[in-house]
Specification:
The structure is a homodimer. Chain A is an alpha+beta fold. Chain A is built from four helices and five strands, in the order H-H-H-H-E-E-E-E-E. The structure holds a DNA duplex.
DNA sequence: AGCCAAATGCAACTAAGCTGCAAGTAGTTT
DNA sequence: AAACTACTTGCAGCTTAGTTGCATTTGGCT
């Protein structure tokens, strides 16, 4: 996607969920759309450099996006959250994430789908399922 | 299990992995064996009350147990780790964990097994898989 | 242009866990 | 049994990721 396309998509998404199109929201959302993998608040701030909003604003912006369902919390790694655009997920599950035990990197396996598990437990109502895989990535294998 | 049985099992486990049988290790491991659900360092300390070791010792003890493969990190919730005895897991996966979106509690679904996924990606070698389910628990449904 | 609820920035705070180092102790050696 | 020593523990203080309170600014509306 070109910069221009990202900008259009950013504004369209913000409009769709009725959020004010402010500077911080545009740049944070654009950063997530540009990234191939889920990003942490810290990574987003670094990538934005001098045009990054205050870190508190980044945290609050991401939280707002999650509540509006434009962005998902993809996974928690080393006590920090990684976020990704919500369009990469279905209602009942996000694609699996793969973490390499050697280099520590995590990748999205968007092509992979795992059937929603049937719980053998009475009374538990399953709404969503999250799968994480661990092993060696192509670079480390 | 009776208190006496827990004590025997605790010492047997420490012996098996060649760790010194110290006071803190005995009480922390016993607390994990007694619990029905994974426990955080904080929860263990609270349960042990005045006989709890220093909190740094609890953290280091849990880390030691994980390295020795006596205990596993079951899941990360709200930025804190929950631990459980390793015997509840197989080589390639832990049982799924279920988190209730209403009350926030997490339960082990030890009766449930999910086949190890086959990755359609060339070059990724999958060693372990982790499944988390979200929904409503019997109390909240 | 003017209004105002919503958004932002700043400073200070919190929770969970980690580090460095001095003191204690389990298991071994003599 | 006493001594030894490498592994453990406790304490104080630090770090990281994220949160809260509050004063200031601004997007979208009139």
């Amino acid at each position: 996607m070109t910069t221009r396309e990202i900008e259009k998509r950013t504004d369209a998404l913000l409009n769709a969920v009725k959020l004010k199109r402010t500077g911080p929201r545009r740049v944070v959302l654009a950063a997530l759309l540009r990234a191939a993998e889920p990003q942490s608040a810290e990574q987003i701030a670094v990538k934005l450099g001098t045009s990054a909003p205050n870190k508190v604003t980044v945290y609050r912006t991401l939280e707002t996006f999650v509540n509006a369902d434009v962005v998902h919390k993809a996974f928690l790694q080393k006590r920090t959250w990684y976020y990704e655009p919500a369009d990469k997920c279905t209602d009942t599950q996000c694609h699996p994430h793969f973490t390499c035990t050697h280099c520590g990197d995590t990748h999205c396996l968007t092509e992979m789908s795992i059937p929603l598990a049937e719980s053998p437990y009475k009374g538990f109502v399953v709404h969503r399922q999250q799968v994480r895989l661990e092993g060696l990535c192509p670079d480390c294998a």
